């Protein structure tokens, strides 16, 4: 017997002698059939179709063409009508997923690179060298243009020139430069401080000079954090000055409403504008659908 009725213990030798095909052996649990590869492809296609209104209407606008520089590809994409999404990535695998999902642009954000590479917050702890190294790995992995977060340029105007040239050599299509003091703070936090108007404009001019010296066409994205640090009027003045200095794309961080976004879009007509849309940005996530025709040419999603 399997159980000794006197001691109420199992008879291990009897238990081991039971063949595997014995009725006492429990049958395997029933397997629930999963979706077939065809169903998965149809689901993926439906998901991409649902995103279609966000993308550039021209399918050929995506990707870097043979003989085309990454910056030239980015400029071509921004020249097409509509809004262009640029999801953030922090490594080569993430960038490949962005590309595979069909997005036309990828953005290497300092916030996520600092978190993934250092395990530290976005408070100016990550260095120029670490960002350039990460950017090179990302651009080598994808065939879509990548914009790199250049933070505050990692120093003065001379540092900014070195940063721009390093990003060019790393294969980045664009670089975003902001006007925060050092050490900088994350764009989603309060209490940020900015450098003076004169120094901020000087930094953008230094970036333009570095581009000319490198015979490059890298896209300069000029960002101001003065909306939160000072006022909306100050932010509008700065982006106009950045455009006059030669910036290719303008960005005001921490705009608080659609009305403020409209005021931003009215500055420097014809110059692409950038919007940072995340659950922390304070802007409605359907902003692109609302204002596709108002010069918001691409948006970064965190």
Helix count, DSSP H or I runs of 4 or more residues: 12
Please report the distance between the alpha carbons of the first and last residues: 65 Å
Low-pLDDT parts are 48-60, 292-297
What's the gyration radius in Å? 26 Å
User: Which structural class is indicated by helix and strand composition?
Assistant: alpha/beta
Oligomeric state of this protein: single chain
- Main sheet: strand order: 3-4-5-6-7-8-9-10
Mean pLDDT: 83
Which range best describes the helical content: under 10%, 10-25%, 25-40%, 40-55%, 55-70% or over 70%? Answer: 25-40%
Please specify the SSE layout and strand pairing.
Elements: E1 3-4, E2 9-10, H1 12-16, H2 37-51, H3 70-79, E3 84-89, H4 92-100, E4 106-108, H5 110-118, H6 128-139, E5 146-149, H7 157-169, E6 174-177, H8 197-213, E7 219-224, H9 226-229, H10 232-245, E8 249-252, H11 258-265, E9 273-277, H12 287-290, E10 296-301
Parallel strand pairs: 3-4, 3-10, 4-5, 5-6, 6-7, 7-8, 8-9, 9-10
Antiparallel strand pairs: 1-2
Helix pairs in contact: 4-6, 6-7, 7-8, 8-10
Task: Characterise this structure.
It is a single chain. The protein is an alpha/beta fold and 302 residues long. It has a single domain, classed as Alpha-Beta Barrel (TIM Barrel), CATH 3.20.20.60. 40% of the residues lie in helices and 14% in strands. It is built from twelve helices and ten strands. It has helices spanning 12-16, 37-51, 70-79, 92-100, 110-118, 128-139, 157-169, 197-213, 226-229, 232-245, 258-265, 287-290, and strands at 3-4, 9-10, 84-89, 106-108, 146-149, 174-177, 219-224, 249-252, 273-277, 296-301. The strands form two sheets. Strands 3-4-5-6-7-8-9-10 form an eight-stranded parallel beta barrel, surrounded by seven helices. It has a two-stranded antiparallel ribbon with strand order 1-2. Strand 9 (273-277), helix 12 and strand 10 (296-301) form a beta-alpha-beta unit. Helix 6 packs parallel to helix 7 (157-169). The longest helix has 17 residues, at 197-213. It is elongated, with a radius of gyration of 26 Å. GO terms for molecular function: catalytic activity. InterPro entries: ICL/PEPM (IPR039556), Pyrv/PenolPyrv_kinase-like_dom (IPR015813), Pyrv_kinase-like_dom_sf (IPR040442). It comes from Aegilops tauschii subsp. strangulata. It holds the Pfam family PEP_mutase. This is Isocitrate lyase.
């Amino acid at each position: 017997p399997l159980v000794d009725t006197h001691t109420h213990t199992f008879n291990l030798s009897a238990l081991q002698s039971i063949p595997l095909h014995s009725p006492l052996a429990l049958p395997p649990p029933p397997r629930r059939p999963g979706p077939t590869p065809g169903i998965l492809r149809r689901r993926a296609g439906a998901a991409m179709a649902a995103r279609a209104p966000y993308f550039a209407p021209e399918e050929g606008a995506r990707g870097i063409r043979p003989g085309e520089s990454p910056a030239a590809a980015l400029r071509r994409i921004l020249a097409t009508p509509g809004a262009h999404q640029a999801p953030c990535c922090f490594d080569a695998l993430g960038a490949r997923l962005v590309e595979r999902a069909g997005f036309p642009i990828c953005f290497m954000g300092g916030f996520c690179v600092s978190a993934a590479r250092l395990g530290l917050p976005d408070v100016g702890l990550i260095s120029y060298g670490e960002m350039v190294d990460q950017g090179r790995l990302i651009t080598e992995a994808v065939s879509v243009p990548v914009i790199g977060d250049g933070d505050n340029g990692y120093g003065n105007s001379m540092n900014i020139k070195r940063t721009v040239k390093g990003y060019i050599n790393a294969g980045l299509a664009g670089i975003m430069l902001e006007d925060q003091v050092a050490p900088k703070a994350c764009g989603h936090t309060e209490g940020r401080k900015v450098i003076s108007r004169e120094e901020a404009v000087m930094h953008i001019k230094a970036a333009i000079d570095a581009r000319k010296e490198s015979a490059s066409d890298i896209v300069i994205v000029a960002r101001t954090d003065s909306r939160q640090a000072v006022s909306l009027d100050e932010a509008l003045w700065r982006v106009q000055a950045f455009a006059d200095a030669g910036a290719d794309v303008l960005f005001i961080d921490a705009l608080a409403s659609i009305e403020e976004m409209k005021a931003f879009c009215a500055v420097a007509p014809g110059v692409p504008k950038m919007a940072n849309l995340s659950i922390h940005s304070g802007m409605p996530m359907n902003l692109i659908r609302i204002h596709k025709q108002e010069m918001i040419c691409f948006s970064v999603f965190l």
